[in-house]
Amino acid sequence: MKMLKTILKQFFHEPVTTLFPEEPPRNYAGTRGHLVFDPSKCTSCTMCMKRCPSQAIIVDRAAKTWIIDRFRCVMCGNCVDVCKFDSLSMEREYSKSAAAAERGVEKFDITYVKPEKPKKEGGE
Amino acid sequence: MTGKQTIIPFGPQHPVLPEPIHLDLVVEDERVISAIPSIGYVHRGLESLVDRREYQDFVYLAERICGICSFTHSSTFCQGIEGMMGIEVPPRATYLRTMWGEYSRIHSHLLWLGLFADSLGFESLFYNAWKIRESILNELEATTGGRVIQGVCKVGGVRRDVTPQFLSEMDDRLDGIEDEMKELTNVFLNDYTLKKRLVGKGVLSKEDAYILGAAGPTARGSGLDIDIRSTGYLAYGDVGFKPVVEKDGDGYARCAVRCKELFQSVEIIRRVMTDMPSGDVSVPVKGNPDGEYFSRSEQPRGEVVHYLKGNGTKYLTQFRVRTPTLTNVPALVSIIGGCELADVPQIVLTIDPCIGCMER
Amino acid sequence: MNMEINMINVPDVPNIGAKMKSGGYRLVVITCTPVSEGYVVTYSFDKDYKLQHYRISVQDGVKIPSIGPSYGGAFVYENEIHDLYGFTFEGMTLDFKGTFIKTSIPYPFKKKEQTAPTVTVVNKEAKE
Question: Of B67, B142, B280, C49, which has the highest C-beta tally within 10 A?
């Protein structure tokens, strides 16, 4: 009789697995899916490069580039915590699978322009 | 009549082994006389990386020592740094750490139950165990942001808070999970086939378990009352805790300990949720660790010891992890001696070997 | 957490092992740590969740007597220290002779003449 309950359940419940390639994988509001970089806010302070546990980020101050190796990145979110300029954020969607040649190393040109200091008025 | 002694290599690649360990089994007829383990297939040298990463960033690396008990590794590491620096962690953070620690214990035990069923060829039971594990992983992902590598601990507290509304919803979902687990463990504890493969197989006596230094369910299955949670670290002192102990010392006892710990963990999570204090979840950390510290906590597989040594800079000088699997290996070697060759895969699995963890 | 460490001499190690065993302690861990002069090896024992530590100070090439006769489970730690730091233990219950952890570099955790750099420099050309 115990079996009967289990057998009947088979006919009525929804499948527990997801149809992954057709359906996007489940995620939640707090999921650390992939890292997003905003080149217009980065001041090249290199904090993210220094504190990355897997050393996935290279910031070149002279060339004004921000380079991430997506295959080294472990989605810990440490760089998001240490960034003081809101230039980095974690998005909840998982990135699609890819080969290293397609989307291994991503390079961004930093477009941040240092705002000019407001001139002091009547200081002379 | 006895035959000549033969040596049969077991592993590193074997259908029941999720991770590589090699055993040389000295066999006489069908009986195993002794076993010689050898490891080193997945040695990464993670411990030596500690002097090249800042101690606050090393939490993420400490978490990656193991892919299953990851949360306990990070919380033990943080506990060690906090002990060394004398940081008071806010009570809400310790409660949250306890909750996630117990969730990871449930998912680890369900993983083991599934793998064990798979090693017997009982595949539908394997799928059932992992189906329940999936709902635990969903809870973990929704609260911490990661499925198995949570990345939520930091020195001085935790990185995320959980809203009271989410906690009450989680409480309701736990009821469903508990019902499913009851059905599942009923099979593990009462099924004829499983009992035939477990009862009386691989018996570890209480004295041997103590002297060989067995830890976790392996020790508790032999009647030893060793559980670091009894010392009342994190919130275990507040919620009250009594270890699950079985007396027989065979494979069935170890399986029963894990089955019963599932419900014990659910019970702890419930109590943590109701008693959850309000307040901050982290305190700012200033300065660098100096001195040395032995930090201990209870992983799903047993007692883990993190030894930390700092010298007043932001890089620690020494980090050593004693994982429960390493200390269960002598126990494994002693219980394999004298068993049937056909039982070896199941006996190896009953200590819940986690080799990545063991070699770091 | 008890952090008091009793310093002992190298030849006393087996006696301490026997004493702790008769006192009802279990072996928790053997830790090897490089210090400014040589290394220290710490033996930690546990009874009723209280840790008791004993420490010996050793130089390169010193032979350490094993506590294997008292604690059968000590061979994993002793072989590990042998394979990672290069110390020889005398009288281990199960001696792997350096094959317990097989590493491509012999004795990887041994003190280097040159200390490791604090940041691993990732080759820039290799990344692009």
Answer: B142
